[in-house]
Write a structure and sequence with these properties.
With about 300 residues, the chain is mostly beta strands. It has helices spanning about 15-20, 280-295, and strands at about 25-30, 35-40, 50-55, 55-60, 70-75, 85, 100-105, 110-120, 145-160, 160-175, 175-190, 195-200, 205-210, 215, 220-225, 230-235, 245-250, 255-265, 270-280.
Length: about 300
């Protein structure tokens, strides 16, 4: 596991009630290739990324608080029944049960500190069974707010890669667990991004995912069928144990994720880095090849 020193930066003053209500509404716009990438966060979703636009195309679906481009975690095999989620709870609509503690914009960086809500409200029934604990059929959490702090920095453009968004997160886990699943970055895209590819940047080969769901070892690219608009994901710290990059699809939305698993989780910080790549399929693949080359040496 890659762990980085983390200091909670507690320096933002939110002046007045109006400012507090809108602290999560931030934007960064950065030139990229022949256009610009515009990334927005929304107070409605406790500062989670609610929009990524590039070449006049919206990449992010926001129909509920579990979508967006965001982070989540789960512990001890309970899945959604013990599932701190940055954007908020399944029952949230126009506000979030997650609490945005601090937020700021610095040049091309968006920074937030959020106390994540549990995805399920206390006592919420879960008839299909919770994660790997199928005998558990309701939420494990007894309060709506988790106390799990998520410290996030989204950097739009990195040196040499104007079309790459760095999504770096630190989970501040308040208590020990036997096992933790950290969905460090997940992107929910409109269903028009229906072409799903697994891409091997070392061999420069791709294959269509077809109907396959779940995780595997290769970076995932989701694209429009004409291959003109695409989003890929890569982490220099994945794969692990034959998985890490996930692809999922539903009737009205598609999803990728960048996932890390830890055993014997101690209370404290856990930091992960995922890189989100935008462009045509060809541009995304070229960027992935260039990103992987230094890591492969």
């Amino acid at each position: 596991m890659t762990r980085y020193p983390s200091v909670l930066l507690l320096s933002v003053a939110l002046l007045g009630a109006c400012a507090a209500r809108t602290a999560g509404d931030m934007m960064v716009s950065v030139p990229a290739l022949d256009s610009e990438i515009v990334v927005r966060t929304c107070s409605r979703f406790a500062g989670a990324v609610c929009s990524i636009r590039y070449r006049d195309k919206e990449y992010i679906d926001t129909r509920d608080h579990g979508r967006l481009l965001q982070s989540a975690s789960s512990f001890d095999g309970y899945g959604e029944c013990y599932n701190p989620t940055e954007g908020g709870s399944e029952r949230d609509r126009w506000a979030s049960s997650s609490v945005l503690r601090e937020a700021r914009v610095e040049k091309n960086h968006l920074w937030t500190l959020t106390d994540m809500a549990f995805w399920l409200p206390p006592s919420r029934a879960y008839p299909k069974g919770c994660g790997q604990r199928r005998q558990q059929v309701e939420a494990v959490n007894t309060v709506p707010l988790s106390g799990h702090l998520l410290e996030k920095q989204v950097s739009v453009g990195i040196p040499g890669f104007p079309n790459v968004i760095e999504h770096r997160v630190t989970y501040h886990v308040p208590a020990p667990f036997s096992q933790g699943t950290f969905e460090a970055s997940t992107g929910y895209l409109p269903k028009e991004f229906s072409l799903a590819l697994y891409y091997d940047p070392v061999e420069n080969t791709e294959r269509e995912a077809g109907d396959r769901r779940g995780e595997q070892v290769l970076p995932v690219i989701l694209a429009t069928p004409d291959r003109l608009h695409a989003m890929g994901v890569y982490s220099p710290d994945l794969p692990r144990a034959g998985r890490g990059y996930g692809r999922f699809f539903y009737p009205d939305v598609v999803k990728w994720n960048c996932v890390f698993r830890e055993k014997d989780v101690k209370a404290g910080p856990y930091t992960y880095r995922c890189l989100v790549v935008l462009g045509t399929v060809a541009e995304v693949q070229e960027s992935l090849r260039r990103l992987v080359k230094p890591a492969a040496r």
